[in-house]
Each structure stands twice: as structure tokens, then as C-alpha cells.
Design goal:
The protein is α/β, with parallel strands linked by helices. It has nine helices and five strands. Strands 2-3-1-4-5 form a five-stranded parallel sheet, sandwiched between helices. Bound molecules: BIS(adenosine)-5'-tetraphosphate (B4P).
């Protein structure tokens, strides 16, 4: 049995926060493409050197680089029982790649959690967090990129009947309770 959950939403909507909590309670890994990319940047790998200026500009790292990184991560044995995808997919081609990668192991996306947060709150949260790519200018660009390239995923997953929209503008515990309930309500993949 395998459980595969996608966390989807604008930058700062709490994908990482909620995926970490769910990972603890389900005992399956949180796979954050942002964290994987930042690890590459800090160890100065070839991928990290290419990704660093892109991330600092607020743009998306090219699909093929991120997808190859994800493919490698999914080969690790802890992902056999499933994974919580935090920040992937972010484009329609990435969504197709995720379906293909999962189907190689007879798996599929079981549910997509969409965290809905007003833009003003996103800006406040990100500026308070203060990561290297959390400057006012970069945040504005990341929100623009989200609208243009990532938000169309909502319609895709809605049509597939997989999207669960959750109000992410509340206390973290309240959101977690609703995320847990939504995931528990979904049957898991057979393999
Ligand atoms: P990510 O690392 O995925 O960053 P994010 O979208 O900004 O964060 P998230 O939504 O997880 O917010 P968090 O829980 O941390 O991406 C960074 C960059 O990497 C991208 O811009 C891109 O360049 C690159 N990248 C990553 N994946 C890629 C892909 N698939 N393809 C191409 N490029 C990719 O929460 C934010 C803050 O809010 C935290 O401080 C948190 O404490 C706070 N918070 C959370 N929930 C809250 C709540 N309910 N109330 C109040 N505050 C809350």
C-alpha cells in the first residue's frame, strides 16, 4: 500500500509546514523540491550552481532538472510506502511527469491538498521568514510565476476529482486537523 499526497498552493501558503506535520504522523517522507534544491545549492553541486541564480530571481528551475532530481529521490527505499510532495508539481509538464514516475511503481496521486491563502497574507509571511529568496521584489515575482505557471494545476486536479481546497489562513493546528481528515478520507493506492 502506498499513499501519495501532493501539497499545492502559492509560495508561503504553508505547504512545507503542513507536509512536515503530516509526514510525522503518517511515517512517510516529505519530499520538498525546494529543500532538495537548497541542499544542492549549499553543497555546490552542478545542479546547485545552475539553480541558485534562478531561485534567487523568483523563477522556476527548468522542469527537466527538477524532475530528474525527484526521480532520484523516489528511488530511495523510504519512498516505497508513498510520499508527501511539497512544491512539486509546479507546472503542467511536471504534473504529467509525476503521474509517469508514480505509475512506474503502480502508484498514483491519491489526493491534492490546495492551501488557499490571500495574497496579502502570503507577502507578510514570506517577508517575516526572510529566506534568501524572500525579498519584497523576489516575492512579487514568485507570486506572478505562481499565477502564470502553477495555478492552472488546480483546474487539472479538480477535473480529475483529486483536489481538496483547504482554507490556509487560520491557525496551523486547525489547518493540520483538516489536512489529516482530508487525507484519511481517501483510499490509498493498491501497491
Ligand atoms: P519552496 O521551497 O517550495 O518554497 P515556498 O513555496 O515559498 O514555501 P511553502 O509554501 O512551503 O511555505 P512554508 O510552509 O515554508 O520553493 C522555493 C523555490 O525553489 C521556488 O521559488 C523555485 O525557484 C524553486 N523550486 C522548488 N520546487 C520547484 C519545482 N517543482 N519546479 C521548479 N522550481 C522549483 O510557509 C511560509 C511561512 O509561513 C513560514 O515562515 C511558516 O512558518 C509560515 N506559516 C505557515 N503556515 C502558517 C499559518 N497557518 N499561519 C501563519 N504563518 C504560517
Amino acid at each position: 500500500m502506498s499513499r501519495n499526497v501532493v501539497f499545492f498552493g502559492p509560495p508561503g501558503s504553508g505547504k512545507g509546514t503542513q507536509a512536515a506535520r503530516l509526514a510525522m504522523s503518517l511515517g512517510i517522507p516529505q519530499i520538498s523540491t525546494g529543500d532538495l534544491l537548497r541542499a544542492h545549492v549549499s553543497r555546490g553541486s552542478e545542479l546547485g550552481r545552475r539553480a541558485k541564480p534562478i531561485m534567487e530571481s523568483g523563477a522556476l528551475v527548468p522542469d527537466e532538472l527538477v524532475t530528474e532530481m525527484l526521480r532520484e529521490r523516489l528511488r530511495e527505499p523510504d519512498a516505497d510506502a508513498g510520499a508527501l510532495f511539497d512544491g512539486y508539481p509546479r507546472t503542467l509538464p511536471q504534473a504529467s511527469s509525476l503521474d509517469a514516475l508514480l505509475s512506474e511503481g503502480g502508484r498514483r496521486v491519491d489526493v491534492v491538498i490546495f492551501l488557499d491563502v490571500p495574497e496579502e497574507e502570503l507577502v507578510t509571511r514570506l517577508l517575516a521568514r526572510g529566506r534568501a529568496d524572500d525579498t519584497r521584489e523576489t516575492v512579487k515575482e514568485r507570486l506572478r510565476v505562481y499565477e502564470a505557471q502553477t495555478s492552472p494545476l488546480a483546474q487539472r486536479y479538480q477535473q480529475l476529482g483529486l483536489l481538496v481546497k483547504i482554507d490556509g489562513f487560520r491557525a496551523i493546528d486547525e489547518i493540520s486537523d483538516e489536512v489529516h481528515a482530508a487525507v484519511a478520507a481517501v483510499p490509498v493506492s493498491p501497491s
